[in-house]
Specification:
About 25% of the residues lie in helices and about 25% in strands. The chain has 17 helices and 24 strands. The strands form six sheets. Strands 1, 2, 8, 9, 10, 13, 19 and 20 form an eight-stranded mixed β-sheet that branches. A seven-stranded mixed β-sheet has the order 6-5-15-16-17-14-18. The longest helix is centred in the middle third of the chain and has 18 residues. The protein is globular. It folds into three domains: about 220 residues, FAD/NAD(P)-binding domain, CATH 3.50.50.60; about 140 residues, D-Amino Acid Oxidase, Chain A, domain 2 (2-Layer Sandwich); about 25 residues, no CATH class. Helix 1 runs parallel beside helix 9 and helix 9 packs across helix 10. It is an alpha+beta fold.
């Protein structure tokens, strides 16, 4: 792929595939042709995609007309018929009356779905539309010439643990394109480089970490079918944003998860252990009775909202989906925004491709299309939602209900600044699934004899971090990548889940994360 192509999409998630499909549709409708290439670091489409996921499916009616006729896919699309919210404290659970639950959090009419399966479905549609999809291609650098994005650079392949060449060594390659669409997901390496180069939002982007498991019941499904349940409170401390969820995923399958805002102050907060604490709550444990965990995963969620959006269109490139920050935490949703932003980008690119061959593709009207598709209006209405909880859940809950009428822009600090020197939770181990088993059920695989794809920039800083912040990386990483051996941080890079937590949470900004060789990382098949 050394020759220039017309459209390069970086990332085969819902946003990137929606963009690729829509471009081919637009070209076909006008009798034109152009090369549309999608690259993705996962071994197969969907294997690095994770979400809850309660989904507003109307966007698929436009993107893939007749999608409901696919019986095999529809087996995994579960209409929501029961929607509940509970507050957990101690060993008790209190159901919140529907009138108290904010309207944007109403999920009746939505569906629950495996994002991994949705992406695999869209990949098939894209290929049939003439899109070229190349899995196992890790983009590491944004290529910019004369102020214009001209493609991406890939990482080297075939290095040993010391950086030497193996027999299969391949030097870093470049993929050049007339226009590039960045759909590389939450805190994507390439979309982050674009923000740094061309301009970030008025607020820093902030994140939560979602920990998720898929469970199956051997006999009776104690949770039930066609049901969505959200919880507030336990086990999250009052100062930590987030909550839990359980979603029906089929007759005998349920998704259960916990979300924690990464601006937490505690150096020793361990999300995977907090997830086990959540599952051990009597109310949740009773709903999980008789189930077996068959898959696990973790992912960050960009939730800064409207004021955290950076440049969405620059010369030669557009940003879509989670890489742009199109998640609305007032709704706890982002998938339909990813698809709608992908379609908006596609229509912008398709219009620009009418320029003569070899000319620069004009990218005009992307923001207007995001407005028309409801992406920016929804984010604007929720512009202070996540910021309302910066002081904790009790002042945040009532404040979040009136945030759209607050004229001032409420501030946020980067997540790494949230960690406070000396702050500890000192919670006992709740038991349940251990960290090693959690990692094994993600299916994550990396070549053991390659250089680590994360780097501790200054190992000496970690010595002081032990006393000040409990070497927080050894706690916050759900993949158990970081371990303190008494004198230094030891990396187990093969455990990495590509969740991006370490890239945003290290209190000393002392970790750099780059994608490893293509085709490595988690194998999410039901997430």
């Amino acid at each position: 792929m050394s020759a220039p192509i017309d459209v390069l999409v970086v990332g085969a998630g819902p946003a990137g595939l929606a963009a690729a499909i829509r471009i081919r549709q637009q070209l076909a409708a006008t009798g034109r042709d152009a090369s549309v290439v999608v690259i993705d670091k996962a071994p197969r489409p969907g294997h690095h995609c994770l979400s809850g996921a309660a989904f507003e499916p109307a966007c698929l009616d436009e993107l893939v007309p007749g999608w409901r006729d696919d019986r095999r896919f529809m087996e995994h699309v579960i209409p929501v018929e029961r929607d509940e919210m509970y507050f957990l404290f101690g060993s008790r659970a209190i159901q919140l009356p529907p009138l108290v639950v904010p309207r944007p959090m109403n999920h009746l009419g939505d569906v629950t779905i495996s994002l991994s399966r949705l992406v695999a479905f869209l990949a098939g549609k894209a290929e049939r539309a003439g899109v070229e999809i190349y899995s196992g291609y890790s983009a590491r650098t944004l290529l910019v010439e004369d102020g214009r994005v001209v493609g991406v650079g890939l990482g080297e392949v075939g290095l040993d643990a010391h950086g030497g060449d193996k027999s299969n060594h391949r030097t870093a390659e470049e993929i050049r394109a007339r226009v590039t669409i960045l759909a590389d997901g939450t805190h994507g390496v390439i979309s982050t480089q674009l923000r740094d180069r061309f301009g970030a939002g008025r607020h820093p982007q902030v994140y939560s970490l979602g920990i998720k498991a898929v469970v199956q019941y051997a006999d009776e499904n104690a949770f039930g079918t066609n049901r969505v349940l959200h919880t507030l409170g336990y086990p999250n401390p009052a100062s930590v944003f987030g909550g839990g969820f359980m979603y029906s995923m089929g007759e005998k399958t349920v998704a259960v998860g916990l979300i924690l805002g990464l601006d937490w102050k505690y150096g020793d907060l361990t999300p995977q252990r907090e997830f086990e604490r959540y599952r051990a709550h009597p109310f949740i444990a009773d709903l999980l009775r008789g189930s077996v965990t068959v898959a696990t995963g973790a992912k960050t969620i960009p939730e800064g909202g409207y004021y955290s959006l950076g440049r969405l269109a620059v010369p030669g490139a557009l940003v879509v989906g989670d890489g742009a920050g199109f998640v609305n935490m007032e709704k706890i949703k982002g998938i339909h925004y990813a698809i709608r932003s992908g379609m908006a980008a596609a229509e912008t690119v398709a219009a620009g491709l009418a320029a003569p061959d070899g000319a620069r593709v004009p990218l005009v009207g992307y923001a207007d299309r995001l407005e028309a598709r409801g992406v920016l209006p929804d984010l604007r209405r929720a512009r202070n939602y996540r910021q309302s909880f910066r002081w904790g859940i009790y002042p945040g809950a009532p404040l979040s209900m009136v945030q759209r009428w607050i004229p001032a822009r409420m501030g946020m600090e980067p997540d790494f600044e949230g960690t406070r020197r000396g702050a500890r939770l000192d919670r006992p181990d709740p038991g349940g699934m251990d960290g090693a088993t959690f990692v094994s059920l993600t299916g994550s695989l990396h070549r053991e004899d390659e250089p680590a794809h994360m780097t501790v920039l200054d190992p000496e800083k970690c010595v002081g971090c032990e006393a000040d912040y409990a070497n927080s990386c050894t706690h916050f990483c759900p993949g158990q990548v970081y371990r303190w051996d008494g004198s230094k941080i030891v990396l187990s890079a093969s455990n990495c889940l590509h969740c991006m937590t370490c890239a945003v949470k290290c209190p000393l900004e002392n970790i750099r994360w780059l994608p490893p060789e293509g085709g490595e990382g988690p194998r999410f098949k039901q997430m």
